[in-house]
Amino acid sequence: MDDISYNPRINRRIGGRVLCASEIKDQACFARMAGELGYSTQMMSSFQGAQEMGIVSRIPAKRIVSGAEQFHATFDAKTPPRGFVYLLLEQEERDLLIYSCHLKSNRGGSVSATARIREESARQLLQHIQIMEKDGRKAEKPLWILVMGDFNYDPFREEWAEDKTLEIFLDGGFASGFAGRKREDAVTWISDGTYGDGTFDHILIKGFTLGETAEVIVEDTDGSISDHRPVWIDIED
């Protein structure tokens, strides 16, 4: 679960909050919860599974474009599971384009066997982003792009050394929210005993920079609610 402005002290930053969630089992329950928390804009996938994705927002916007797409089959890779949801929020000074995704897990095969499926998901998602950059909006304003979700990819572990998922996004102009971080400061998944603790949940950004402008933070939860820790980004307006 990733959240722009997760902390109440950031309300003044970009005028509101956006929450991205994955593995939604009950869409009606999630929508009801989002409404009670004041999220007026809601977009959820309908992939007919128990791992739906959603984005909800209470950021003021002049125009909102939202949608969901499933990953499709290719000639050289198995069809990636699930897909992504996106939300374009057009504002006075800039536009925000936000994606929530959940890439192929490592279950049912080795890391090397599942890496190609994640890489194909990354390529398809990047293609959609490039279309939105060119055709999804008309105004000549700065565009801030965030891709958030469970990538099932750990850049700190040797097993994922040949996985090019993150590299595909970096080649597309994105920066990792964990760039320059030590592994112990970026643990987002708490081990269930099968693997060690991992950094599977990521926030990638384009159009603005980390440092004085933005900071990615991992909540230090103990796993009693979820094995994934909340990851959020504090954006300085």
Structural class: alpha+beta
Q: What's the count of strands?
A: 12
Query: What do the pLDDT scores average to?
Result: 85
The major sheet is characterized as: 6 strands, mixed
- Cα(first) to Cα(last) distance is 23 Å
How much β-strand is present in the residues? 25-35%
Which stretches of 5+ consecutive residues score pLDDT under 50? 1-15
- Main β-sheet, spatial strand arrangement: 3-4-2-1-12-11
Radius of gyration: 17 Å
Broad shape: globular
* Helical residue percent band: 10-25%
Task: Describe this protein's structure.
The chain is α+β, with helices and mostly antiparallel strands and 237 residues long. It contains four helices and twelve strands. The protein has a six-stranded mixed β-sheet with strand order 3-4-2-1-12-11, covered by helices on one side. It has a six-stranded mixed β-sheet with strand order 5-6-7-8-10-9, with helices on one face. Helix 3 packs parallel to helix 4 (165-171). The longest helix is centred in the middle third of the chain and has 25 residues, at 111-135.
